[in-house]
Each structure stands twice: as structure tokens, then as C-alpha cells.
Specification:
The chain is an alpha+beta fold. The protein has three helices and six strands. 19% of the residues are buried.
């Protein structure tokens, strides 16, 4: 799903209690730092994260993605198995691209390329 192609079926909203947000962000940041070997932003509403092949790290990301769907149902997470990698694909509706920008920032120093191969990096 690309957010530019369809309207959100659910509101772009988070039901996580404000006091729980820092811990969730910390868990994402830690899991992504351990797992991500590269990132690609093919369009503003999609982020592709290339992962290490460690099954425990992938399992931790699956658990986090499920928990994120509980509070932020507008996120779409999928895991794609390619011939040389496992990729976590994160999609949001077109109205939530700034939220995806923030999520991409959790990846940390990982570099990202757009569809033309130009390097994109996000500050923290």
C-alpha cells in the first residue's frame, strides 16, 4: 500500500498513553539499531528496511510491529523475504508521511536511498 494511492481506512491517530511513548520509541530505536543494515524510501509513504538475518531480531521486530498496530492502526507493516535479504516494509497513508519521517529517524545513522538512487539521511 502506498498512502498516495488510497485513503486511510482508519484514522491517523495513536492510542498509546503519552507516558508510554518514550519507552516504545526506545524499544524501536534499540531493535532497529540492532537489525537494520540499510534503508530505502521509495516514496514518501513507504520505508523499506533491509534486516540482518538473525531470527531473534526479526522476531523482536514482528512483536513490535504488532504492538504498534494496536495503538497506531494506520501503520502497515510487512516482512518481505527476498533472495538475499529480509525486508521490513512500513507503509502509511499519504496524510501520515511526517509520522513516517519520524519513524525513519529512529533508524539512526542508517543511510537511505530514494527511487533514483540519491542518498537521503535523516537527522535525529
Amino acid at each position: 500500500m502506498s498512502g498516495d494511492r488510497r485513503q486511510p481506512a482508519v484514522p491517523v491517530a495513536c492510542t498509546l498513553a503519552p507516558g508510554e511513548v518514550p519507552e516504545r520509541m526506545h524499544r524501536w530505536r534499540r531493535a532497529l539499531a540492532r537489525s537494520v543494515t540499510g534503508a530505502e524510501r521509495p516514496d514518501p509513504s513507504r520505508l523499506r528496511l533491509r534486516l540482518h538475518e538473525d531470527p531473534a531480531d526479526v522476531a523482536a521486530l514482528v512483536l513490535l510491529a504488532r504492538q504498534e498496530k494496536d495503538c497506531c492502526a494506520f501503520f502497515e507493516f510487512s516482512f518481505v523475504v527476498e533472495h538475499d535479504a529480509t525486508v521490513l516494509v512500513v507503509d502509511v497513508p499519504g496524510t501520515a508521511t511526517e509520522i513516517l519521517d519520524g519513524f525513519a529517524g529512529l533508524v539512526g545513522p542508517a543511510r537511505c536511498t530514494d527511487t533514483k538512487g540519491a542518498t537521503i539521511s535523516w537527522g535525529r
